[in-house]
Structure formats: structure tokens, C-alpha cells
Amino acid sequence: MADNQIQLPDGRALGYAEYGDLAGKPVLFFAGAPNSRFMHPPTEPTEALGVRLIVLERPGFGLSDFQPRRTLLDWPDDVAAAADALGVDRFPLAGISAGAPYAAACAYKIPQRLTRVAIISGVGPMTVPGALEELPRVRRLGAKVARSAPWLVWPLLSLISNPHRDPERFYERMLSGNSDADRALLSRPEMKAMLLRHYLEATRAGMRGFARDSIIVSRPWGFAPADISVPVYLWHGEDDANVSLSAARYLAQAIPNCQAKFVPGEGHWLILKYWEEILSELLA
User: Fold this and answer.
1) 34: cis peptide before it, omega within 30°?
2) What is the pLDDT of residues 62-121, one digit of tens each?
3) pTM for the complete prediction?
4) For residues 102 and 211, what is the distance between their CA atoms, to the nearest angstrom?
5) Overall average pLDDT of the 140-161 stretch
6) What CA–CA distance (Å, rounded) separates 265 from 204?
7) Each residue's pLDDT tens digit, 185-244
8) Phi, psi of 136 (to 5 degrees)
9) How many helices (H) and strands (E) does the chain have?
């Protein structure tokens, strides 16, 4: 069930896919950026734990309509509407990488709908001291442009980060910014096939959604992590070269009910090894 859409109250369509046990316990999942319904954790633990994993596409990605001028705190309204349409009342959710700020926003804005939240290899607030400097060079530059000249993000991404121009070159460039642990994982043929399909689908309608997402995660979130009341489980590899470790440690301390695991020797894609444990925490 990979090509589905929900009609939102304002008329926009939201794309999604479901994995695992379709009659099981619902868990929502937000992928990184670019974002598509084809990026999902390993299916074996999802099925074994009886989980109906629902992967939502943010506006402007995949099958989801673009939403001009959207903010981070617009997303929880879409999530609540999607859950209503899917017949889901209260649920846990997980966000990975650039999907993590959106998971945090839901924990802040719609706590009455959530049971638990997982933040995995998450992009933290870029306002944390040192966070920007810890990003890879290209992403650091992108974040600075998103803050100072946001109108340039769309053309820049179209020029240097469009997988449709040359998928193989795009993937090789993505690999180069990863830790040794991540490169080993991403070099697997099955991972490469899944991620290339994911990136190509995410940008099927162009780069506007990717540009808006990049601007959103580079700016202040619009709420204080200290105001999150939902239990949060934070997982982060200490060798993650994609996002800021300082920002992740800040979140672990700032969110009141947060249990954090910083895993030595693991990189950005630790979800591939630890998804069963993460999912078990969400269901407990």
C-alpha cells in the first residue's frame, strides 16, 4: 500500500504509505529530507511487533501538495487530520533526521493525540551554540543561506541536490558526507536501491518542498523543547557526521521527559540496527 493520499480539510492532498501489519498497532513515521513515503525502517521488526507503520509525506514531497509559507508548527495540524482520516485516535510516532523537528513539533502541539515519540538521528535546533559549525560543509552553507537569503535555497538545491539530474552522482555525493559506519551501510545494494527510489520520488514534483523543508529546519522552531510533555526517546550515534551532536545533547537535556541513548561507534543510520528496540520503546 504505497500510493495513497488523504484529502486534508483545506483541500490539499497528503501522500502516505503503510508497512508491516496493516491490521496492527498504528505508529506514524516521518522521514528526513527530501521526504517520501518510500523511506521506511526495516520491515521485519515492524511486522514481528504487529505494527502498522504509516509513513507521511510532508507538503511538496511525493504525492503531497505543496503548501506555501508553511512553518514547522503547521505540520501537527496535518498529522492530526491524517490520523482522523485513517481512523487513528492516539498513537506513537517517530521522526528521523530532518523529520525529527516535525516529531518534536507534534509532541509540543498535539500531545493529547500522542502516547510516545522517538527522535532518531535528529536535526536539532540550529540556535544551539556550536550546532551550525558541526554540520558538514555543504549543509552548513545551506543553513546559512536558508537564514540569510531563503529565496536562494530553491535554485541552489535544484542545481546541486536534484537527484533527477544524475541519480548515481547524487548518491555518491551523499555517501561522501557520511561516517565510515554509514558508508558501509549505504553501500549495500538494497539500501542504495531503496534510498534512490525514495529521493527520486520525494522530488518528483520539483524542489520546492525540499527547499521549504530546508528553510524550516534551519530556523528557530517556534516553541521551547522544555514545553514538551509527551515521553520522548532520543537515539543518536556519536559518530553521526550528518547532524549536530551538540544539538542532540541539548534536546536530551531540555525535553523534560526524555530518555536518551548516545551510541558509540554508530552514525546517522543507526535506525537500521536498532529499529526493533526503538519500536519496542514506543509500544511499551
Assistant:
1) yes
2) 999 999 999 999 999 999 999 999 999 999 999 999 999 999 999 999 999 999 999 999
3) 0.94
4) 16
5) 75
6) 35
7) 888 888 888 889 989 999 998 989 998 999 899 899 999 999 999 999 999 999 998 899
8) -55, 155
9) 11, 8
Report all structural domains of the chain as residue ranges with CATH numbers, in order of start: 4-283 (3.40.50.1820)
Q: At 51, which helix (H) or strand (E)?
A: strand 51-56
Integer angstrom CA distances of residue 144 from 98, 219, 242: 16, 10, 16
* C-alpha R_g of the chain: 17
Provide the grid cell at 18.
503503510
| Nearest one of 239, 284, 233, 283 to 260, comparing CA atoms | 233
95 strand-pairing partners: 30, 119
Secondary structure of residue 23 in the 3-state scheme: coil
The DSSP bridge pattern shows strands 4-7 and 13-20 to be antiparallel
Q: Cα(275)–Cα(278) distance, rounded to whole angstroms?
A: 5
